[in-house]
Design goal:
This protein is mainly alpha-helical. It is built from three helices and two strands; from the N terminus they run ββααα.
Length: 84
């Protein structure tokens, strides 16, 4: 996946939530549980360097306000910080 469902962007390219349906964390938990069950090593990344970056993601790289919104609304979820 190249982030087609996460994060959820508003029409101005600002990230507003983890994902449109609000299921990312539970889906990710199920995925990681299954990987553990089958002894599969998983590396989570923000971007896949093998594919082109879509315009909405370029905004996260080129626009400090959009990046800050991404950090505050996506990477820091439910009061948890992801190493920032």
């Amino acid at each position: 996946m190249e982030g087609q469902n996460t994060p959820d962007f508003d029409r101005n390219g600002f990230p507003r939530s983890l994902d449109r349906d609000g299921t990312l964390l539970s889906d990710l938990g199920k995925f990681l549980d299954l990987a553990e069950e089958y002894n599969v090593f998983v590396i989570l990344v923000l971007w896949n360097g093998a594919v082109g970056i879509k315009d909405m993601y370029k905004g996260l790289i080129l626009n400090d306000l959009k990046l800050e919104a991404y950090i505050k609304t996506v990477l820091k979820v439910g009061g948890y910080s992801v190493g920032l």
